[in-house]
Amino acid sequence: MRKLLLVLAIGVILLGACAAPSTSPIPTETPTLNPTETPAPSTTPTLVSTPKPPPTPTPTSTPTQVTPTATLVPAAVFKPSLEKRYEVSVEEAIVYGTGGTKDGGRMELLLDLALPDTGTDGPRPLLVHIHGGSFTTGSRWPQWDAAERGWVAASIDYRLAGDEPLPGQRVEKFFYAIGGESGSARDRAFVASLEDTLIALDYLLSRADELNIDTNRIVLKGESAGAFTALTVAYCADKFEVSGPTIAAVIDFAGGISETFCGGATAIDPGEAAVFIAHGTEDTVVSYTRALSIVDGATAAEITYEFHPLEGVGHDWLGADQSRMVSLTYEFLDRALYKVKDK
To answer: Is the pTM of this model over 0.85?
Structure first.
């Protein structure tokens, strides 16, 4: 089996990788990244540990899923639905904190919060969405699809390059590693997005009792620049002594981990967050090789992961199979968060 997987992995690398991973902390292949909604797949996962026939539609390539041998968590634990079943209320433009700017000011940071009506059931898992846009554009939007399945779901705004952000003491070591105040506005925005995500998590967890949040099941979801931020919070922040809550899983749509400052996917340590990876093989904005690197890091650390190489897809990954990718995402989270590893 290992030989077969090795052959498959080599085949993917030869066909999909058109350049070595960039050493930039954030994607630099083009000036901006387009903010997007939920991406679409061209593939269906195959379970590596227990092979089974793939469900329809027939994939154009074979994604990889690695999940530890597991048993179900106790029935008393609230488990979100794989289908939309809950009524949802949305609170928009909630001020979750403030962030510093280079002129010495402070700016309000906003989020949208979607809450499912699960009655007395709970506590519910938390999903925090971080939008894309090359750290120069983009904005939050309510995460209806997660809340309708039983998730407490937040979507955050964060300081962008045009805000001339000045990250604070909490992320000081990371900030100075990328150049401090002399760094570009875009690089400073990357660090600010890390700080702002942590501020958002602090705010949401301060309301954990009120919102009925399961603090052991926190998921970060991001696309493009937002995925860089999510991956950095989960796997790299601790390298710079940046404190934050434990992340249970990351949803990575076309992101990557900084090679220069985090060591790429070598930043992933055993026992860290599970990761769902979807990346177009023809992506010229964020190189597909970044996804392959994350797969290597996840494999080496023996964490749970699922990889969807989207054959022939670039950085604009929306398409006819969008609903299928949404389903695959929540199926992965169900396996990763609601099963416990056997001893």
So the answer is: no
What is the CB neighbour count within 10 angstroms for residue 7? 10
pLDDT of residue 252: 97
**What's the half-sphere exposure (Cβ side, CA atoms, 13 Å) at 341?**
10
Half-sphere exposure of 118 (CA within 13 A, CB side): 24
Task: Write the CATH number for 19.
Answer: 3.40.50.1820
The pLDDT tens digits for 81-121 are 999 999 999 999 999 999 999 999 999 999 999 999 999 99
Statement: residue 190 has pLDDT above 70: yes
Cα–Cα distances (Å) from 327 to 51, 100, 174, 323, in that order, read 20, 38, 35, 6
Cβ contacts of 101 within 8 Å, gap of 6 or more? 107, 159, 163, 164, 165, 166
Helix, strand, coil share of the chain (percent; to 5): 35, 25, 45
List CB contacts of 212: < 8 A, sequence separation 6 or more: 118, 122, 123, 124, 152
* Number of domains present in the structure of the chain: 1
143 or 31: which leads in pLDDT: 143
Residue 323: give the domain boundaries.
2-341
Cβ density class 176-199: b for 16+ within 10 Å, e for less: ebbeeeebebbbbbbbbbbbbbbb
- C-alpha to C-alpha distances, 234 to 127, 230, 242, 275, 302, nearest whole angstrom: 13, 6, 11, 10, 15
Contact 151, 125 (CB under 8 A): yes
Q: Residue 5: pLDDT band by 50, 70, 90 thresholds?
A: very low
